[in-house]
Write a structure and sequence with these properties.
The chain has about 200 residues and is mostly beta strands. It has a single domain, classed as Jelly Rolls, CATH 2.60.120.1120. The chain contains 1 helix and 15 strands. The chain is globular, with a radius of gyration of 32 Å. The N and C termini lie far apart (about 90 Å). The relative contact order is 0.23.
């Protein structure tokens, strides 16, 4: 008599049992599953090149009258960098980039360059729940980069960071790049630092 074969799952492992209808199994064979072949690992992307042109950091820790920002007023970030806190590690074609009259001056042949402006501030907001907006102004009809930071408290020092990225075009070449701040609540800047970080060059050397 030919016995039917039934597949029974026991504790997550498949088993094959041989039994006749209405009778208990008379034989049980455990079959261990096999792991499938490992997939092919994808290709790794190109290594990032951030930082290969160096960077320029300028900073100031003196509180001046221009460090007071009224609510709702768009005001330029102005300060004289402290030489003791200036770190100029720019190299390659970016060594001519500098901070003059409260704005960055692009390198003369820098059309098409990409760069980041990282703004680090210590501020004291007068009221809680405010927002500080930052924008990068190159003298064109509208800012070329914007960012926002939501303040957490009031009356105490708070660290605020913005990252603004832009490409060097006619506006930056002709007018430089200035940073403006606008707060929904009044605030005072206790210290400011800006890192200029070149990312890539344009078509000109």
């Amino acid at each position: 008599m030919k016995l039917p074969v039934y597949a029974i799952a026991v504790q997550g492992r498949p088993q094959v049992s041989v039994a006749s209808l209405g009778r208990p199994a008379v034989a049980s064979v455990a079959v261990r599953g096999q792991q499938g072949a490992q997939g092919i690992q994808g290709e790794r992307g190109p290594q990032g090149s951030a930082g290969r042109f160096g960077q320029l950091r300028i900073a100031d820790t003196v509180v001046d009258p221009e460090d007071n920002f009224p609510a709702g007023v768009r005001q330029q970030l102005r300060f004289v960098p402290d030489p003791a806190q200036t770190q100029n590690f720019l190299h390659g074609p970016f060594t001519s980039v500098t901070w003059v009259n409260n704005r960055f001056v692009a390198r003369p042949n820098g059309r098409g360059d990409w760069q980041d402006f990282i703004v680090n501030l210590l501020v004291i907001p007068q009221f809680g729940g405010g927002i500080i907006y930052a924008d990068l102004d190159v003298g064109t009809a509208a800012p070329v980069a914007t960012a926002a930071y939501a303040l957490r408290g009031s009356g105490e020092v708070e660290r605020v960071t913005f990252r603004l990225q832009t490409q060097t075009l006619d506006g930056f070449l002709n007018n430089g790049a200035a940073i403006f701040l606008t707060g929904t609540v009044p605030f005072v800047i206790q210290s400011e630092a800006i890192v200029y970080l070149p990312l890539s060059t344009g078509n000109e050397p």
